[in-house]
Structures are given as C-alpha cells and as structure tokens.
Fold this sequence. Notes:
Keywords: Cell membrane, Membrane, Transmembrane, Transmembrane helix, Transport. It is a multi-pass membrane protein. The protein is mainly α. The protein has a single domain, classed as MetI-like (MetI-like fold), CATH 1.10.3720.10. The chain contains twelve helices and two strands; from the N terminus they run E-E-H-H-H-H-H-H-H-H-H-H-H-H. It has helices at residues 27-50, 57-64, 66-99, 102-117, 120-131, 136-143, 157-182, 185-193, 198-226, 230-236, 243-253, 257-288; strands spanning 3-5, 11-13. It has a two-stranded antiparallel sheet. The longest helix has 34 residues, at 66-99.
Amino acid sequence: MSTHSDASGAIMPLPKIRRATGLGGVVPALAFVGIFFVAPVAILLLRSVLEPVPGLGNYAQLIGSATYLKIFANTFIVSGLVTVISLAIGFPVAWALAIMPGRLSTVIFAILLLSMWTNLLARTYAWMVLLQRTGLINKMLMGTGLIDQPLVLVNNLTGVTIGMTYIMLPFIILPLYGVIKKIDPSTLQAAALCGANRWQCLTRVLLPLAMPGMAAGALMVFVMSLGYFVTPSLLGGTANMMLAELIAQFVQSLVNWGMGGAAALVLLVVTLSLYAVQLRFFGNQNQEGR
C-alpha cells in the first residue's frame, strides 16, 4: 500500500484510485459508433431486402442483368489496374525516400502531402484539361513525333485509371515508406556479402521484408478505388460507370433505395472479404514485426 507523511511526520495511506472495469469506459464510444455508423448501414441493408417488396429480388436483378454485371466488371478491373500501377510506381518512390538525404526526403514528403491536401475536384478537373484531345499531354506526344493523331484519354477507362492512380499514389507510398524505413540496411549488406546480386537482394530480401506494407497499401488503394465516385464520374462518363456511381444513381436519380442498398451490400461484402484475406495472410507478419 502506498503511503505519505503529513506535516507532523505521521504516515498516512494514500487514497486508492478506482479504475474503470468492464465496458463502462467504452460505452459512450460504442453508442456513438452504433448510432452514427452501424444503425444507418443496417437500415440501408434492411431496405435492400424489404423494398419494393420483401425478398431477394434486388440481388437477383443485380446478378441477372448484363448491364449491372458490366458495371461490376468495370469496377474491379479499374480498381485492380490502379492498385497494380500504384504499387509499381509507389515502391521505387518509397525506397528512394527511405535512402535519400533527410532534407530532400522532407521536400518530397511535402509535395506528397500537398497533393493529398489539394481539393479532389480541382485535381480531377486538372486531369481533364491535361488528357483532352487538345491538352498538354497530347500536344507533347505529337510534338515529339510519337503519335500522329491525338489519343482519346478521357471518357474511357484509360482516363479513369490515370486520374485515380495519381490520387491513390500517396496512400501506398506512405505505408511502404514506413515499412522500408524500418528494414535494417545491414540485412541487405549481409545478403550482398553472401554473394547475392542486386536483383536477388531485391526479390529475396527487400520485397519479402516489405510485403506487409505492400499488402496494407494495396488493400487500402483497392478498397478506396472500389468506392470512388468523383474521378470515375468526370473522367469516365456514363459508358464506363463504376459501382459507386451506380449506387448514387439508384439513390439520387431513381430513388430506388432497395437496389442501392443491395449494391452497397455487395461492395461491403467484397471489402470485408478482402480485409479478411489480408489478415489471414499478413496479420501474423504484422504482429511479429512489432
């Protein structure tokens, strides 16, 4: 028992500090999450099986329609392409940030953060200007003689992929940088001393050690791409609609909450499934690395 002495020198016990036990300390947080997050999602999902008539008709219509299946395919194709391209570009950038001098890396980080803080709508409109037939990119390609006619880079999946990759790059560079920065350089030096060349050091040492960060960043980018709305809507057009645009159309234009809820549930199930896969294969690695 802790004690202290008063002015007369007598030893007196300190008062005991009662600690919160059970769920009492987290009830306000759980209530907040339940009211503002769980309840709205649950209500929306209930409407998917109750409107316009009770049953699974909305899900059957989603699965049975070739138009809706094409939208699902567009969503997963674009999300996959954006994830792969972002990973291919983001890994070298993260590696360069991890090994470059501190002042230069600070400048690069400032540029990355500035791009994230810039308004998303403004960045998307900027890409619309750059990618149009009379835009800077087509003019540069034609000026260098690489093409004779302007390329069609907007109102298609190409424009959506380019715009979303630019937006998603910081979200994969930052987690990758954090993982690569923690790798001991002596590990690569030991591999080189054992006879490994640069390619072997990359594929057999660096990539396996950075795999948890790659998985976390790729999952984040893929899931965010599945639910993106502004960039696909402006750069893709109606012919290349993605799932988030379909949900918005159901709710805002058609006022069909049942179909909108069904599409939202499909998106939620895919997201949770991907998260479960990531935990299954990379969760243990993350815990061991702590």
